[in-house]
Amino acid sequence: EAGVAQSPRYKIIEKRQSVAFWCNPISGHATLYWYQQILGQGPKLLIQFQNNGVVDDSQLPKDRFSAERLKGVDSTLKIQPAKLEDSAVYLCASSLATQGEAFFGQGTRLTVV
Amino acid sequence: GESVGLHLPTLSVQEGDNSIINCAYSNSASDYFIWYKQESGKGPQFIIDIRSNMDKRQGQRVTVLLNKTVKHLSLQIAATQPGDSAVYFCAEDNNGPGNQFYFGTGTSLTVIP
After folding, report:
1. What is the domain count for chain A?
2. B25, CA 20 to 30 Å: which among A11, A96, B35, B90?
3. To the nearest whole angstrom, how far is the Cα of A23 from the nearest Cα of chain B?
4. Contacts of B108 (CB under 8 A, 6+ apart)
5. What are the structural domains, with CATH classification, of chain B?
6. Which 8-state DSSP code applies to residue B84?
7. CATH at residue A27
8. In terms of C-beta density within 10 A (0-12 exposed, 13-18 middle, 19 or more buried), how is residue B99 classed?
9. Which chain B residues are closer than 8 Å to A107 by Cβ?
10. Is B98's CB within 8 Å of A93's CB?
11. Structural domain for A73, as ranges
12. A101 in reach of chain B (CB within 8 A)
C-alpha cells in the first residue's frame, strides 16, 4: 500500500515570499490533516479535512495560511507571506475515518531566511 | 487547548534493557491514545494505540499502559535495540467532533550498543 506522499521534501524561501506544499493521502482515506512541527517540538495540528470539507482549522493562522482539498483527495497548504517563525517541517497525514490511527508522510522541511 | 506532556525529554538505555517512556495528558474526556515513533527526517510512525476502556495493550516488544485516574500513559519497550533510537510521542484524541490528535513534546530515546 502506498503511503502518504508529500512534495517538495525541502524548500528554502525568503521572508515575505509565498510557498505551497502538496499532499496525496493514502487511497480511500477520507480524513486528511496538516501538521506543523517546529524543531524540538511535537506536531501541531493546523487543519483537518473530512473529504473536501474543513472539520477544524482553529489553529491555522488564517491571515497567512490557507489550505484546500478541492476534490476530496489531494491537498495543498499555502503560506503567503512567509515569516521567519514559519520555519518548520510541515507534515501531512491521513486516516480512514475520523477516529483511528493517522498515517504520516515524510514532511516538507521549510526554511525561511 | 489540551496539554499532553512528557516527563523526560531524553532517555538513554543499554541495548537489551527495557525502556519506559512516560506521558501525562490533561483532558479527562480523551478516549483514544496513540504512541508514535519518529526517526530523524521521517514522519511519525504508528507504534501502538489504546482506548480509554482498556488499561493495558501489548504489541510486539511494546506495551502501553493507561492510568485514567492520574491521566498517565506509558510505553514500555522490551529488549531495546539500536533501531529503537528515535523520538517517541504520545498523541491524545480530544474526543471532539473531528477527533483531532494533540501531540506532546516527545522523548528522545538513545540506545547504547
Report:
1. 1
2. A96
3. 13
4. B9, B10, B11, B86, B87
5. 4-112 (2.60.40.10)
6. G
7. 2.60.40.10
8. buried
9. 42-43
10. no
11. 5-112
12. yes
